[in-house]
């Protein structure tokens, strides 16, 4: 008796169901489905999402050769695709052809793109974005790398855009400000190594997450009441030193952080702390950071009186802080005013009443660092965990920490070395 032919249930699935399965696989594996049958030969080219990354190519394939393979993939898509393309991500380290990029962006805008992500190009010369990109009404996520961004006169905003990331992009301050304010639904903004920035003005009523790692001279965080997470690393413009003013009032600290009423997590780097310290420093901010739960300070200079005074102003303004993370900038220099300042804080009647976790990395064992540790231990009544990581082969002696006055009875101390 002849065996009954088994039905191909997968091939007979509705395309929307099959598409939702295939988009979760690496594109290289999806392309291999073309070997299943003639019916499957070009099925993969009609996906609604395409992610072209290093997983699509052999590890040994040279960077300059990859673009030819990427071009071949995209031409197959252009020739055979039906329906919308909602997501396109290009994150394969390669040397792109600018004319190809312009052609593809034009094609994707016609296809109703919602997520466009261009990352990790290997080139120096920036490519100019085609103006058609700024007329995508359905765009939700935009990540751009290595381009020149100029808004066309017809640009009226991205009404649906929720996430914007710019990396190694050439854009002037006024254009960036207008772009941010023209995205009313924007929730996440990331700016990395931006060219030609002078003054950053961040104004957006819906913005919740902000990360900046770039050169700039000044910053204003205005009219962004929902900001919950802010991470700022400031790089000096062209290596120039910062204009310094002891008498500036209000200080940068009040002007920049004083409007972050809803902030929950704050991450600041060494040079930006120095920037905030410029001017007359208040004991605490006029309006406390009542929602701040996590404070992460990177490369703190314990040999700078102004820097230490600045982050103490933030600490005193954060009555509900639960987690404090500090990495210490390398310096063996001891500044007597810093030691005296930290000793004086022990006399003040203020406590870190909600602080539960403290992690300090990169200690050198200087007197200001040890005075700071003593202060934290004596003023943190609910502290549960203190982790101290010291440079060099020797750890901070646990006996030294054990004999310091401690406000918490449930504290566990961990001392490590790098």
From TrEMBL:
Positions of the F-box domain: 7-41
Gene3D superfamilies: 1.20.1280.50, Ribonuclease Inhibitor
The protein, known as: F-box/FBD/LRR-repeat protein At1g13570 isoform X1
Organism: Theobroma cacao (Cacao)
């Amino acid at each position: 008796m002849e065996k009954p032919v088994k039905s191909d249930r997968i091939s007979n699935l509705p395309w929307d169901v099959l598409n939702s399965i295939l988009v979760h696989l690496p594109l290289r594996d999806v392309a291999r489905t073309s070997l299943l049958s003639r019916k499957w030969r070009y099925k993969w080219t009609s996906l609604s999402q395409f992610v072209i990354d290093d997983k699509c190519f052999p590890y040994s394939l040279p960077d300059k050769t990859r673009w030819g393979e990427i071009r071949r993939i995209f031409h197959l898509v252009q020739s055979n695709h039906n329906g919308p393309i909602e997501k396109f991500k290009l994150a394969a380290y390669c040397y792109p052809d600018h004319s190809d990029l312009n052609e593809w962006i034009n094609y994707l805008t016609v296809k109703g793109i919602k997520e466009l992500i261009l990352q990790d190009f290997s080139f120096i010369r920036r490519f100019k974005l085609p103006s058609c990109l700024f007329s995508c009404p359905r765009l939700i996520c935009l990540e751009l790398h290595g381009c020149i961004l100029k808004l066309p006169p017809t640009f009226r905003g991205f009404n649906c855009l929720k996430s914007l990331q710019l990396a190694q992009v050439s854009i002037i301050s006024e254009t960036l400000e207008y772009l941010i304010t023209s995205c009313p639904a924007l929730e996440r903004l990331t700016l990395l190594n931006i060219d030609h920035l002078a003054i950053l003005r961040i104004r957006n009523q819906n913005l919740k997450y902000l990360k900046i790692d770039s050169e700039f001279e000044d910053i204003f965080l205005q009219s962004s009441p929902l900001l919950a997470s802010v991470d700022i690393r400031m790089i000096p413009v062209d290596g120039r030193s910062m204009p310094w003013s002891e008498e500036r009032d209000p200080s940068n600290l009040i002007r920049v952080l004083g409007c972050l009423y809803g902030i929950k997590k704050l991450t600041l780097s060494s040079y930006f702390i120095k920037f905030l310290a410029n001017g007359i420093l208040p004991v605490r901010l006029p309006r406390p950071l009542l929602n701040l739960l996590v404070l992460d300070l990177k490369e703190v200079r314990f040999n700078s009186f102004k820097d230490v005074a600045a982050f103490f102003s933030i600490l005193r303004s954060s009555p509900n802080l639960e987690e404090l993370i500090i990495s210490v900038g390398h310096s063996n220099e001891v500044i007597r005013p810093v030691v005296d300042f930290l000793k004086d804080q022990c006399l003040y009647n203020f406590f870190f009443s909600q602080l539960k976790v403290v992690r300090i990395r990169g200690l050198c064992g200087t007197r200001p660092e040890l005075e700071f540790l003593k202060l934290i231990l004596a003023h943190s009544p609910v502290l549960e965990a203190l982790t101290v990581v010291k440079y060099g082969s020797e750890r901070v002696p646990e006996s030294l920490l054990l004999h310091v006055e401690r406000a918490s009875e449930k504290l566990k101390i961990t001392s490590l070395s790098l």
